[in-house]
Design goal:
By secondary structure, this protein is mainly α. The chain has helices at residues 2-6, 11-31, 34-115, 118-192, 194-199, 215-295, 298-302. α3 (34-115) packs antiparallel against α4 and α3 runs parallel beside α6 (215-295). Residues 207-219 have a biased composition (Polar residues).
Length: 305
């Protein structure tokens, strides 16, 4: 093997051998019966067509399967988004109800403070206000953590959808390139055949055969070429539909991302408003308790006077 690999053949001899092989091949083709040659080329084209049909069926089956899976996943994400919206609305409603209840409790505390002594009113305000605020904080914290967890899950699902779409588009481009290459090979084989080249132009359109040709040899070739052209059109149509479905899936993912952003903004706005209202209520309760404590020691001094 090493000696065979180390043998160096001049380029001129290689070209000479190539020319001799070409001449020998041409002489064999000329001696061969044209009908046998056409039949062999016809069988080769039929095998290529069957292989392309099988690959097309596999691609269509895979496309349908991936489309169904993607549709199911999108439905699940839509359901989760609806659940998140409902939970957010219920959280807002509970927050409003809690604030209303807190306001009512504050009014009741103020009324009871007017009817009771300053010492009892100051002690009750100092004990009830922190308890109510801590309960509100705990409820809001739980709901906020739940909403953030669902949003993280939705974001992870969206990332997975993007990866699936990119993989499908890559596989589609590869399959399209391979199909185009194979069709070019079939077309080159057709154009290399003298009989087929006379029937088809360079653009692939069918030409009218001369009346002197035998009908037995032209009719099967015309049907096969029409079948190949029809299959090519069907494959191009399926590839266009696949691209359209990928674009629709990407648009749906963008809509889900937009909904996630809107949910995040609403949660942040609700959190900010709740914090501001809580701080305001704490400040008001602190100021009222401090004013009551300052009035309590001044009342005994006014009695003896």
């Amino acid at each position: 093997m090493e000696q065979a690999c180390n043998i160096k053949v001049p380029t001129k001899k290689l070209k000479k051998f190539e020319k001799e092989y070409q001449t020998l091949r041409e002489s064999q083709l000329q001696q061969e019966d044209p009908i046998d040659r056409y039949q062999r080329e016809n069988r080769r084209l039929q095998e290529a067509t069957m292989r392309l049909e099988q690959e097309n069926d596999d691609l269509a089956h895979e496309l349908v399967t991936s489309k169904i899976a993607l549709r199911n996943d999108l439905d699940q994400v839509e359901d989760k988004a609806d659940v998140l919206n409902k939970e957010l609305l219920s959280t807002k409603q509970r927050l409003v109800e809690t604030e209303e209840e807190k306001r009512c409790q504050g009014e009741e505390t103020a009324q009871s403070r007017r009817g009771s002594s300053f010492s009892s009113s100051s002690s009750s305000s100092s004990s009830s206000s922190p308890l109510c605020c801590s309960q509100l904080k705990e409820v809001f914290r739980r709901e906020l953590e739940k909403a953030e967890l669902e949003i993280k899950k939705t974001a992870a699902i969206i990332v997975e959808y993007k990866q699936i779409c990119s993989q499908l588009s890559t596989r589609l481009e590869k399959q399209q390139a391979a199909t185009k290459e194979e069709l070019d090979i079939v077309r080159s084989k057709v154009m290399s055949c003298e009989h087929c080249r006379e029937l088809f132009s360079t653009l692939g359109s069918l030409q009218v055969s001369s009346p002197g040709r035998q009908k037995s040899s032209t009719e099967p070739t015309d049907e096969e070429k029409d079948g190949l052209k029809e299959q090519l059109r069907e494959m191009e149509l399926e590839l266009a539909q696949t691209k359209l479905q990928l674009v629709e899936a990407k648009c749906r993912i963008q809509e889900l991302e937009h909904q996630r952003g809107v949910l995040m903004n609403e949660i942040q706005a609700t959190k900010n408003s709740w914090l501001s209202k809580t701080l305001g209520s704490l400040k008001s309760s602190t100021s009222s308790s401090s004013s009551s404590m300052s009035q309590a020691p001044s009342s005994p001094k006014e009695g003896p006077a």
